[in-house]
Amino acid sequence: MSLAGCQPRPPKPVVMNSGGGVRSIVTIVHHGSAIALVDGKPAGYGLAWSDEFAGSTGSKPNTETWQFDTGGGGWGNKELETYVDDPTHCRITADTDATDGKALEIDATKDAGGHYKSARITTQNHLAFQNGYIEARVKLPAGKGIWPSFWMMGNDLAQHGWPTCGMINIVSTTGDQLTTSRAELFGANFGDQHVSSAYTLPAGKTLAGGYHTFGVLWEPDTISFYVDGVPFSRKTAEDMPGNAWPFQKPFFMLIDLAVGGTGPGSPDPSTLFPAKLMVDYVRVYKKGYGGAVAFNGPHNIPGTVQCEDYDEGGEGVAYFDKDGINSSGRYRPADGPDIENADDPNSGFAIGWTDPGQWLKYTVVVGRTGSYRVGFRVAAGGEGGRFHAEDETGKDVTGRIDVAPTGGWQNWTTITRPVHLTAGRHVLKLVEDTGGYNLDYITFS
């Protein structure tokens, strides 16, 4: 079976020995100085992104953020479930224990023939993040053979495979070991010999029956793990086998509820179905983040927006770039979007190497409410492609914009569209529906 149709699904970390092959687990005892949380986040951090799972009851999670991984075959761990894409197994549901009265519910079911179904969702190809404090508020299911997880994978999975791409397990436990939660890191030199730390709840406490928060404070050179705001593990490259540290690039998120496999073993007669994994929210906090920050802006409308002047804030906040690397190293070399020179009057740089699903955000100030003529300056040396623009609510404000071949990557032309904008400050999102073109600048008149 494949992950998003391109790579074998990496095995989940083994959290217990159930009689099969034994994996080596390097346990790191907490050391160093972990950062305490203040009001649920590190001091000086602001909320940069979240999914509160507050959509319509019974609906799937937001398809602009999450996609379903589907299929069976064991997923590299001899798991028993088949992952499906349907609201019976993954949906928004009412929950009085959730912060806003709604939560994501993933159900693992067993039919009369003994077949298991469940769901797994991922932000791959939609969102990826690098650094920050990442937290989920989760209600875990109990039962032998039940295996819930909230984890992250390197966004270069398709290019480099697992475990080279890196993996961060934020929630890793089994339904019959809910007095303990593990935090785990995987990398090129320590795939099966992964690095693991355990957090054991105080005597008499369990992760079953109520919500708990699980977080990771991800800094360039350290990663710290938290349960219910309590730091219990801090790791650096020195802790890693071979000093490998594949955590200086964007990662995407995954949430799933597995059944059986090399971790928890198979369900037994005491296991109750459906097993329910509840997720109140997933939140990402960034250091020093206080809201959208314009780069060389905010950009005034009427006026011109250079496409390379997308907002500041980094991966998953100001932009989404699949490889997280500015291939040319020009203009904004520390960011992910690919920027190249533009041989075009009134311009110096352009966005290149477009790819389906990537996006960029721009903070603008609209001078007056009304209709505007928007001109997109583009070039296409190949077959061309398409894109569109959205406002901060996710509304498509331009409709589909098709880019025909222009005869070269520096043969520029302008495509115009009418849009209606309201006065005030807005964040516009330029979404690359396909690749095959360069983006120079946008004019509003």
Distance between the termini: 51 Å
Topology-level CATH name of the largest domain: Jelly Rolls
Number of DSSP-assigned strands: 34
Helix share, percent: under 10%
| Global mean pLDDT | 87
Largest sheet: 10 strands, mixed
CATH architectural arrangement of the largest domain: Sandwich
What does this structure look like?
There is one protein chain. It contains one helix and 34 strands. The protein has two domains: 2-287, Jelly Rolls; 299-444, Galactose-binding domain-like (Jelly Rolls), CATH 2.60.120. Strand 4 and strand 5 form a beta hairpin. 1% of the residues lie in helices and 44% in strands. The strands form seven sheets. Strands 6, 8, 9, 10, 11, 13, 18, 19, 20 and 22 form a ten-stranded mixed sheet that branches. It has an eight-stranded mixed sheet with strand order 3-17-16-15-14-21-12-7, with no helix packed on it. Strands 23, 25, 28, 30, 31 and 33 form a six-stranded mixed sheet that branches. The protein has one helix at residues 157-160; strands at residues 2-3, 7-8, 25-27, 37-38, 41-42, 45-51, 67-69, 81-83, 90-94, 102-110, 116-118, 120-122, 132-139, 146-154, 167-172, 180-186, 194-200, 211-218, 222-227, 230-236, 251-259, 275-287, 299-301, 303-306, 319-320, 339-341, 349-351, 359-366, 370-380, 385-390, 401-403, 408-421, 424-432, 438-444.
